[in-house]
Amino acid sequence: MPRMLDVSDEVRAEIGDEEADRLLADENTPGSYDCTSCRTPGDSGQERTSTVLFVGDETAVLAFAHASCLPSQVVQVTEEQLQGAVRSIGGVAPGAGEPPKAVPEQAVLGVTSGLVLIEGELHPALVVEPTTPIVRPGTTGPGDDFLPLLIEQGFTPVTELTSVPPVLHGWSVLLAMGQLHAVLQPSAGGGQPVAWWQAHQPLQVTDSWRAAANKHQQVLMFAAPVGSIGRQPREDLLRESLDKAAAVGKLVAAALPLAGT
């Protein structure tokens, strides 16, 4: 079965025409893989798949991603990130003549949009959950500092979803052309806001979500540690997961002003 594989010009330039042609001819392309972006299974025989080349100082690793998550591209990482990876992404093919090695374990922030009913009114919400534990910069080892780090930034712990969280000034949600582009935070140097999270490609939101965002001119952001929320297919299930996370002290929130339309 032919593979629906995208190999960008920059990836081809790094791995060479011969390796790229072998990939496109199915010789080194797995059918199933774990997406290097969202970590969920993919099938290059059933859906468009991007080749993503991680390049370190001495090592190159080729991984695969849903084309809807990431375009085919080259990602520069440190050699330490490559060599110190704690697990490999399923379906890693050789890159730049190197044998398969582990892809760096870098946390990805999963972002889900949905409407949340609070005090009888629907509010646009973003729910953020990382794919792996987040440790404080400069530290290693077990533990998860995701919520403490956000609380230090001004997010509020939530024990139940009965009221709208306070506005967190300086932060904002960027909408452009009706699509979600980024969550912005204040710059350390006091200049223009910088992206705390940025979509690999703009995310579609529903008309009702966009209408609620325009009405309130703000978006509620909820954040929980890895494993607290999961990828919920319906808003009622998302709300149920939020309530459960709040009840056990694993949820923080803030109202972020809307930037864009």
Profile the largest sheet.
8 strands, mixed
Overall pLDDT metric: 79
Alpha-carbon distance between the two ends: 43 Å
The topology string of helices and strands comes to EHHEEEEEHEEEHEEEEHEHE
Provide a concise account of the structure shown.
Residues 26-47 are annotated as: Disordered. The chain has 261 residues and is α/β, with parallel strands linked by helices.
Describe this structure in words.
The chain is of the alpha/beta class. The chain folds into two domains: 5-94, no CATH class; 109-260, no CATH class. 20% of the residues lie in helices and 34% in strands. It has six helices and 15 strands. The protein has helices at residues 9-15, 17-24, 79-83, 146-153, 207-216, 235-247; strands at residues 5-6, 32-34, 41-43, 49-55, 60-66, 73-76, 93-94, 109-118, 121-130, 156-157, 172-176, 179-185, 194-204, 218-223, 252-260. Strands 8, 9, 10, 11, 12, 13, 14 and 15 form an eight-stranded mixed beta sheet that branches. Strand 8 and strand 9 form a beta hairpin. Helix 1 crosses helix 2 (17-24). The longest helix has 13 residues, at 235-247. The chain is globular, with a radius of gyration of 20 Å. The termini are far apart. The model is unreliable at 81-106 (pLDDT under 50).
